[in-house]
């Protein structure tokens, strides 16, 4: 551990044990502390009270005073322990439709709250999504970026949203400590959110909700340690003030530095976030500003295995903590970003809203990429490339929600538009000669990067993207609110220009548009259950055909992926369950022979079809016993390939099943003690298009505990967790032919004080 990290951990721990100041502890329930999951409040309906009205504590408790009795001290421990409970809610932000309860919409959406993020000591967005049975995390090509797979389709980091806005989130790695919830929407969402600028989000998307001031004041300090030498801490303060507590402020700071459980790999992370909000009876305004810096030194990247015809490396041939990366390899990612949201009610039936977000990002790195050529010996080649990449993005969305009645039918009409502007500046320098390497017996070398494009010290423009859209929908509710039918569309225009490295001359120009319709149906046969159906599309930019084909220069319309889904939900507040059956067909580019000319034509006639089933559970099974998890079954097929060679074969890297289970148990005879456990299991993944070999199924187990107690009359929570018990050796993913090793056994410890 570095001196800075050691000092930070020492300061945090000393402050905790000292008790610091002596502020009054409020026992009022908030979204974080409530033992009963809060309902998602629909933003589509005008609010009848301020959004952040504090919960008043009419009976101040004696445990906040020096002469509190032991029994009252126990109440403090129990209340503080409740604040740390795992909480997964059904519902969230559905873009054009606003915030909705999961039971009322024809889509599958879940939200993971900030107490789960804190208790699991999550350092990246991928750590949070380890809890979701429908998501798997993998790595990007040649770097340390996290990619996510939902329903067998890619979700790039570029296409993760904040407050429903694309283009604002840091691209490669996300620090989750800044967010109050992480929302996962399963399925296509072109109507709900518009086309994702990175061209992914076909199987689902992720939306981040920043932390904002709640009803109860928070002053929390945390110190943490992760093997084999990472130390850090966090600070979280939240206050409401002014008449009727109309003003709110929240500040978060988190940092960690040191060597990870992977040999010679080092991470240095800093995240800062400030949120401000104000409301009256009709208007709500909130703004957040964030800074994130993540550095990785000597990181272990994915292995390129596309050149291997049949054999794959045995996972037991190398230790999970082994590092085949180069010590000189690094990435330095800095982002400044934020959002502004405004809502105003015009009477009791109309709400207008506007959102704006922006991001300025600077990325530098020197990457060592291993290409495996012999799976038995571990031999391969290692390339080297330095890269500079800067982004300046802006995004906005505005609309109106109106509630009107026509006879017995209630209408919720949503109309609005969105726009995204993205500018990318980049330069690179790479080695033309690959060095010999071996993943079982790594060797170090000095890179010689002589071939360059652009100036690394002053990157030039390489891309300029503009996405414009407008949407309109009507949700009709009738039969005593038991049936809701949604119909609508979004018109999306995608403009994309690419420029040559170094010269800045225009290389390609793309300008095309498409309509994305939606239809959804929800039926409530009984109060706490729903049956639903949806037909919705995903949307991504088509291609401009290259010069080597007969139809060179042809501009294709955007790819439209069509999804059909039926499902059922059950939600009684403390417990929720859902099942969904889906099919998504995604067009793909492919080449075909052009008659007998010996030439080829490029078309969009290729197709991938994913079918599957999702089963999810979350909530309190028995008193003191909580569960979150489920099962996903996927059948991902290549339906139409060049020459029919791989028709009917399974797509590379898509597991045939995924299972997740998280348990929390409050030990009844030790107040404040909670035992936690998690299992993650992933089915076999095909290693090549011909399906002649595959990655074996794997399972990983995590165990831990947390204990809430009093020190100087303040509640403290200590957490200990071991990920990958037994140091299981497994290849976690081979998605897009990039082979990723599973994480080694990792020990985590943290202690927090709520002052």
TrEMBL record:
<protein>
    <submittedName>
        <fullName>Ferrichrome receptor FcuA</fullName>
    </submittedName>
</protein>
<keyword id="KW-0675">Receptor</keyword>
<dbReference type="InterPro" id="IPR010105">
    <property type="entry name" value="TonB_sidphr_rcpt"/>
</dbReference>
<dbReference type="InterPro" id="IPR012910">
    <property type="entry name" value="Plug_dom"/>
</dbReference>
<feature type="signal peptide">
    <location>
        <begin position="1"/>
        <end position="28"/>
    </location>
</feature>
<keyword id="KW-0732">Signal</keyword>
<keyword id="KW-0813">Transport</keyword>
<dbReference type="InterPro" id="IPR000531">
    <property type="entry name" value="Beta-barrel_TonB"/>
</dbReference>
<keyword id="KW-0472">Membrane</keyword>
<dbReference type="InterPro" id="IPR037066">
    <property type="entry name" value="Plug_dom_sf"/>
</dbReference>
<dbReference type="GO" id="GO:0038023">
    <property type="term" value="F:signaling receptor activity"/>
</dbReference>
<dbReference type="Pfam" id="PF00593">
    <property type="entry name" value="TonB_dep_Rec_b-barrel"/>
</dbReference>
<feature type="domain" description="TonB-dependent receptor plug">
    <location>
        <begin position="104"/>
        <end position="199"/>
    </location>
</feature>
<dbReference type="GO" id="GO:0015344">
    <property type="term" value="F:siderophore uptake transmembrane transporter activity"/>
</dbReference>
<dbReference type="GO" id="GO:0009279">
    <property type="term" value="C:cell outer membrane"/>
</dbReference>
<dbReference type="GO" id="GO:0015891">
    <property type="term" value="P:siderophore transport"/>
</dbReference>
<keyword id="KW-0812">Transmembrane</keyword>
<keyword id="KW-1134">Transmembrane beta strand</keyword>
<feature type="compositionally biased region" description="Low complexity">
    <location>
        <begin position="33"/>
        <end position="46"/>
    </location>
</feature>
<dbReference type="Pfam" id="PF07715">
    <property type="entry name" value="Plug"/>
</dbReference>
<keyword id="KW-0798">TonB box</keyword>
<comment type="similarity">
    <text>Belongs to the TonB-dependent receptor family.</text>
</comment>
<keyword id="KW-0998">Cell outer membrane</keyword>
<feature type="domain" description="TonB-dependent receptor-like beta-barrel">
    <location>
        <begin position="272"/>
        <end position="725"/>
    </location>
</feature>
<dbReference type="InterPro" id="IPR036942">
    <property type="entry name" value="Beta-barrel_TonB_sf"/>
</dbReference>
<feature type="region of interest" description="Disordered">
    <location>
        <begin position="31"/>
        <end position="73"/>
    </location>
</feature>
<dbReference type="InterPro" id="IPR039426">
    <property type="entry name" value="TonB-dep_rcpt-like"/>
</dbReference>
